[in-house]
Amino acid sequence: MQVKYLSPKEATRILTELSFSPLDEDDTDTLHAFESSTFTQVTLYKKYRINTADPVDENLRIVRQLDVLQGNDDFQDRRPFWESFQVPGMTHQPIYPFISTLRISQKDSFTFTSELGEFYHLKATGIINNKVEKFKILQLSDLHFGLDKGYCSNGQSCKSDLRTLKFLLHVLLKEKPQVVVITGDLFDLHRIHYTDSSQFKSVLLKGLQPILQLKVPFIFSFGESELYNHHGQLAINEFKLSVINFLSTLPFCYNTPPLDLSIYGKTNYNLRVVNQDTDEQAMITVLDSELDKITDSQINFVHRLDAAKYKLLFFHFPIPQFRPIGKFKIVGSYNEKHPLITETNRKFQQDFVKCGYQVISVGHEHENDACLLSKSDDNKQLWLCYSGVSGDSGQTKLNQNFDRRVRLFEINWKEAKMLSWKVRESDGKGFDYQLIYQLT
Question: Which of 61, 204, 407, 424 could bond to 387 as cystine, CB 3.0-4.6 Å?
Answer without folding.
Answer: 407
